[in-house]
Every structure is written in C-alpha cells, then in structure tokens.
Amino acid sequence: MKINIVNQLKSITLVALFSTATLTSFNAFAFEGRQMHEGGEMFGHLEGHKHKKHHHRMMAKYLGLSDDQKTQMKSIRQSAKDQAGELRELLTTYKDQVKLLIAAESFDEAAFANLHAEYQANFAQLALLRAKTKHAMKSVLTAEQQEKWEEFMPRKKRI
Predict the structure, then answer these.
(1) pTM score, two decimals?
(2) Residues 64 and 125 grouped into a single domain
(3) In the chain, N or C: fewer CB atoms in 10 Å?
(4) Could you report the per-residue pLDDT of 12-22, keeping only the tens digit for each?
C-alpha cells in the first residue's frame, strides 16, 4: 500500500513538472519576436520608423509604384520631415507643459486654454505641412493608383 502511494505521488509530481515545463515553453514562444516597452508592456507590432518603413513598402507594393515614383515619394517624405523638425520640438515642449498641468494638484483650465492658444499657430503650420505633403505625394500617382490609395489609407487619414 505504501509503495502504491509513493508511485502515485511520483506520477503526480512528474505530471506537474511536465505541465509546468510545457506551459512555460509555450509562453516563451508566445512572446518570441516581441519587444518590451519602457513601461513593461509587450507588443508584437513594429515600432516607430520601422513601422513607417514597413507601411511605405507595403503601400508601394500595393500601388505598384515605379522606381521613379518610389524615389519621388521618399524625397517628399524626407523634405516634410526636415521642415517639421522645429515644429516637432515645439510640440514636444507643448506636450511636456500639458503633462505638468495635468499632474498639478488642481487643473487650471485658464492656463491650459492660454497654453493651447499660444501653440495654435504651430498646430496650423503642422496641419498645413501635412496637407501639402499628402497633396505632393498624391500628385506623383496615376489616377488608378490614387483610387487604390484611397482604399489603402485608413478612413481617418484619407484626404
């Protein structure tokens, strides 16, 4: 009887160890290829510029862009990025100031309204730059490619 109980305990222990090892390995495979975010979050999609490059490659393939069109698109995006450099720095400053207002013990609506009004010209310049960039990129496309682009772009980003 004592031997039977020992054999059962061994069997249960082996099953528990095997289950733990199996679940741990599945968990490791589930996170393979994902990166850790600074806050400890896991995500599997591409980040920042890698995501944009991937998106641009997919768009070029979907639209069937020629090499010349790809070159023109790349130069338009680079030009827009160069022009937006100073505006991005200003917007980073704006976001930092908004974070300070939000972190304050009590929210000051007047300070937020003044801050927003102060940066309104920068918002307008950035919106103008985005519109000009989209127009320039769309002008590189043929009529058929423009129709495909409208289907490709998410609804919120369509012109």
Answers:
(1) 0.57
(2) yes
(3) N
(4) 765 665 666 55
